[in-house]
Design brief:
This is Nucleoside-diphosphate sugar epimerase. The protein has 353 residues and is α/β, with parallel strands linked by helices. The protein is built from 12 helices and 12 strands. The protein has a 6-stranded parallel sheet with strand order 2-1-3-4-5-6, sandwiched between helices. It has a 6-stranded parallel sheet with strand order 9-8-7-10-11-12, with helices on both faces. β7, α6 and β8 form a beta-alpha-beta unit.
């Protein structure tokens, strides 16, 4: 390809293909990096069959495990300059694109396991043990947390959209601080049931009472009806008229970014590394409810966020101290990964620049 910088013509922008699927956390990481690049994006939505559970060593670069429609969409995509995927299940599709378009830069978010041949950049968080191999594998890039879509502009836009709705519910901006509460749920490695939810709600309610704060809360798809009901019951008993709880099961617009955009303090449950990373990307104080073992990946991330000064553990001592305001440099892992991709683009004469 002729380098347009030598012709005096406008430089074409590289084209980015993003592979997404049904896992919102993975999608946020891949799309966050793609959006940080600021180049044109084509999104290919992957859906799977039961065969996606097979090891990637078996799936290889075939369409095994992809639905018929996803396989057709993948094989119909025009040659991208960069393709980005997140999570093990999407890796065979990414490697398939790389086999078709060898000049393409293949970017994998999170360690996919083997085979990883053909991947040009693999971004892994520091809490993943594979990060220790970064000195031996030049493709590995280590981030502190999970890349995501949180940016000052997105937060400002979401805050502007949601502020009137919060105000209509009596939760608008004013002299009283607002505590944002992001609730996950049970995962493969750890349960989060109604009693856990009641413990969380009591801590948040006690902290809110110390500051006469209002509570803006949302659950997630993993929370479930019993957890949601437990949260509501405690808040109704302890902070009547001073809480707002969104239930994603009821549908409607998701207030997640709106809460991130207006909260003075953000509380997250410790089951989700994506939620902790996104909260710590706002620059707002973060409190994490620890619900995992000390050796878990989640706990390692939490310790890193504590060391950064972004977060504190949510417990009785934290509530007693009444902390809701502190400063720290927000995470910006998506921009860090994007910067490395730009370096790969500059080193690759086959990519549009």
């Amino acid at each position: 390809m002729t380098d347009p910088r030598n012709t005096g013509q406008p430089q074409p922008q590289p084209h980015v293909c993003v592979l997404t699927d049904d896992r919102a956390g993975n999608n946020a990481q891949a799309l966050g990096v793609a959006e940080a690049l600021g180049w044109p994006i084509t999104e290919i939505r992957l859906s799977y069959t039961r065969l996606v559970r097979l090891p990637n060593l078996i799936r290889g670069t075939t369409t095994l495990g992809l639905s018929t429609s996803a396989a057709a969409a993948l094989d119909a995509v025009a040659a991208p300059d960069i393709a980005i995927a997140a999570g093990r299940r999407a890796t065979p599709a990414l490697r398939r694109l790389k086999r078709r378009f060898p000049q393409m830069i293949a970017v994998q978010i999170m360690w996919p396991g083997e085979p990883s041949r053909g991947l040009d950049l693999i971004a892994v968080p520091a809490h993943d043990r594979i990060a220790r191999e970064s000195d031996r594998d030049p493709r590995l890039m280590v981030t502190l947390g999970a890349p995501n879509r949180v940016t000052p502009a997105r937060l400002a836009e979401a805050a502007g959209s949601w502020e009137p709705r919060f105000a209509a519910a009596g939760m608008g901006a004013g002299t009283a601080p607002r505590i944002g509460l992001l609730v996950g749920g049970t995962t493969k490695r750890m349960p989060f049931g109604p009693e856990d939810a009641r413990h969380l709600a009591r801590l948040v309610a006690d902290l809110a009472a110390r500051h006469d704060a209002r509570i803006l809360a949302t659950n997630s798809r993993r929370s479930g009806a019993e957890v949601t009901a437990a949260l509501s019951d405690v808040f109704q008993a302890t902070r009547p008229g001073a809480f707002w709880l969104h239930d994603v099961a009821m549908g409607g617009d998701n207030p997640y970014f709106g809460i991130l955009g207006v909260a003075d303090l953000i509380v997250v449950t410790g089951d989700s590394m994506s939620m902790a990373s996104e909260a710590a990307s706002t620059g707002r104080p973060v409190a994490i409810l620890p619900i995992t073992g000390e050796a878990s990946k989640e706990a390692r991330l939490h310790r890193a966020l504590y060391a950064l000064g972004a977060a504190r553990p949510l417990d009785a001592d934290f509530v007693a101290r009444g902390e809701i305001a502190w400063r720290y440099p927000p995470l910006d892992d998506a921009q860090a990964v994007a910067a490395q991709i730009r370096r790969l683009v500059l080193a690759n004469p086959a990519v549009s620049r």
